[in-house]
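Weekly modeling sync, notes
Attendees: AB, CL, MP (scribe)

Item 1: holo prediction request
CL wants a bound-state model with zinc ion before deciding which constructs to order. AB pointed out that an apo prediction alone won't tell us much about the pocket. Agreed to run with the ligand included and paste results into these notes for async review.

Input as submitted:
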Amino acid sequence: MNKKRLSIVIVILVIAAGVLGYLTIQKSGTYNTNGKIGVAVSIGPEVEWVNAVGGDKVNVALMVPSSADPHTYELLPGQLTQVSNAKMYAMIGTPLEFETNYMDKIKNTNPNMVVVNCSQGITLIPNTAENQSDTLDPHDWVDPKNAKIMVNNIYQGLVKVDPADQAYFANNRDQYLAKLDELDKNTTQTLKNKQGTNILIFHPAFAYYAKDYNLNQTAVMINDEEPSPQRIAMLVNIAKDNNIKVMYSQPQYDQKYMQSIASQVNGQVLMVDDLNENYLENMKNVANAFSQA
Ligand SMILES: [Zn+2]
């Protein structure tokens, strides 16, 4: 090979590498819906719900990773690209900070998208923590009865986006609603001897659940602030007075506070998650964990 030929080959290789690199960057920066209906959702449980109703017609993009805290999570610029490729956005529709902070931006990014308020038809309850009773509790999704309403709202949205597949979506919805009924029935059974039991928990995510299954939720964290040493000392006394040996924390938070309370009463900490993407399986675990209180 002469020098001129060699240099042409090198130039071609350099250009090819550049094009390949450019395409790779384009691909990783784009939400590829693979010809399916792109549906963006705020939090983990909605992933299972949209997939359950939408089946193989949908491609779900989760905004707040389930390991992150939706009260403080900051939307990444790349996620607006996902929103711009979506046909539908399923918002929780409660005063959840991720949505109160970003829904305007999300809607402006893709004004043609169908926006579903999953909580339409659910009666929200006030926050139960001290000095927060003038605000509404955003965590309505943890109650399986509310989940049924939310799944039905997702169904209505998908029919708006793709009316031709209504029968398919309706069949999928009915199958999943039956599973939620079964979860509700099993939860009642699992917790039937726990009426009025005190649930000492780090972040107050289970008020709707506690109301439905007759538990009492006491939270360590208030106003999304780390608890003070005085508050920890007060909760240790509450745990002692009420003989609380099993208490709860969530994977999104620092475990040191619950560990500290538990160690002072010779108790133990169990994990419960309100943001897991596998809703049915996770809520079964939650019921089992609360049955040990
Ligand atoms: Zn929360």
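Recorded for review: The two ends are 79 Å apart (CA to CA).
Action items: CL to compare against the apo run; MP to circulate these notes.
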